Amino acid sequence: MKRKAGQDRSITANWRPATLAVRGGTARSEYGETSEALFLTSGYTYDKAADAAARFAGEQEGMTYSRLQNPTVEMLEQRIALLEGAEACRTMATGMAAMTAALLCQLQAGDHLVGGRAAFGSCRWLTDTMLPKFGIATTVVDARDPQAFLDAVRPETKVFFFETPANPTMDVVDLRAVCGIARERGITTVVDNAFATPALQRPMEFGADVTAYSATKMMDGQGRVLAGAVCGSQDFIDNTLLPFTRNTGPTLSPFNAWVVLKGLETLDLRIRRQSESAVAVGRFLEARVPRILHPGLASHPQHDLAMRQMSAAGPIFAFEVADRAQAHGLLDALALIDISNNIGDSRSLMTHPASTTHSGVAEDKRIEMGIGEGMLRLNVGLEDPQDLIDDLDQALRQVGL
Predict the structure, then answer these.
(1) What is the DSSP secondary structure assignment for residue 216, as one 8-state letter?
(2) Which residues pair with 130 in a beta bridge?
(3) Comparing C-alpha atoms, which of 220, 242, 257 is closest to residue 77?
(4) pLDDT tens figures, 129-147
(5) What is the pTM of this model?
(6) What is the layout of strands, in order, in the sheet containing 349-351?
(7) Of 3.30.300.130, 3.30.2130.10, 3.40.640.10, 3.50.40.10, which CATH number belongs to 9-265?
(8) Residue 242: closest CA among 119, 83, 74
(9) Quick check: 125 and 101 in contact, CB under 8 A?
């Protein structure tokens, strides 16, 4: 099925990321609107029956059905691809729809996947529970060690799947090393880049084949809608991913796509301001809590690697207190920072992963991942960082820290 040509890439070839985030992929209608048009339609009409037949045969450009193409959604896909430095992108209804599609579209019974141990709870469910149900073997490794990937490779290994920085432990994966191991063996690398976004890290520049996103997070950035995206080569997107998504239907709504388009316009401004604030808040916490996991701080064991791969460390990090009781007590004492399991918002949010985002992961696996009962994850928003520090200070004092 041919897709609408959209914006000529020769026009955007020399545009820098900040410009691409505002104008990339824009396709104006005959009305000449400045903001992207919102096309709320499920289907499309044809001038003649032969036109419908030609479109379904892939012989004529144009839309057929919004499960496959929509002008608003297509603008978002082109914009994300341009920001990522990828040939193509397909968006999904949620981040987990993107992760699931990126894996299932290329795996079948008898294949083997190597995944990073530290990951969002639902991503661990994919590797630990869902894929084995379909006869796809999985091996989970400490993704901080490239040798662990190499040691896990089998003749039937088809995919490496990992997140960097990882949720919530902030493990950092050596992209160039791990992607190099995969490339040499014909293995596809799928990187969950949600914590960094292409504004701070572009895994394809280090050899990754596919990047996947929860666009719900920093790309929207204001806690409004759910969305996901998968980026890769034109061949992968059209011939591997699209046959899966067109028939299973994890479709992104045009309205949600429009909201994420608006979010991308300010992504670079937001994520860099929030990254700066997160470093300031992290430095404060470093002197008050037993342990902090923040790749933007020199105390992080992979700080140098993170700074080689990322232009800033992002707004999210974790720290540890004594136990669940102290963690919950600190959360309850907060007056400004909200208790929420979401991340990437312009508001500061904190959660206790062991009892929320990773509560569905067995305790022994949580321990293996490095998620203890005292771990807290903080998303630093756009508030004044001193107000956040003041709120944390009073909450820490209330729990004896």
Answers:
(1) I
(2) none
(3) 257
(4) 999 999 999 999 999 999 9
(5) 0.94
(6) 291-293, 316-320, 375-379, 349-351, 338-339
(7) 3.40.640.10
(8) 74
(9) no
Q: Which run of H or E residues covers position 292?
A: strand 291-293
Same topology, domains 9-265 and 267-398? Answer is no
Domain boundaries, the chain: 9-265, 267-398
The highest-level CATH class for domain 267-398 is: alpha beta
Separation between Cα atoms, residue 259 and residue 263, nearest integer Å: 6
pLDDT digits (tens, 9 = 90+) for 262-301: 999 999 999 999 999 999 999 999 999 999 999 999 999 9
Distances (CA, A) of 67 to 42, 59, 64, 98: 8, 19, 9, 15
Q: 366-374: list long-range contacts, CB under 8 Å, 24+ apart.
A: 368/117, 368/140, 369/117, 369/118, 369/119, 369/124, 369/169, 370/118, 370/169, 370/171, 371/168, 371/169, 372/320, 373/323, 373/324, 373/327, 374/290, 374/320, 374/321, 374/322, 374/323, 374/324, 374/326, 374/327
CA distances from 281 to 319, 321, 352, 378, 387 (A): 11, 16, 18, 10, 10
Distances (CA, A) of 163 to 1, 47, 196, 264: 32, 47, 10, 21
Question: Hey, CA dihedral for 346, 349, 354, 355, is it positive or negative?
Answer: negative
The owner of tokens 């994919």 is 126
Strands (E), 112-251: 112-116, 137-141, 157-163, 188-192, 210-214, 228-232
Residue type, 174: D
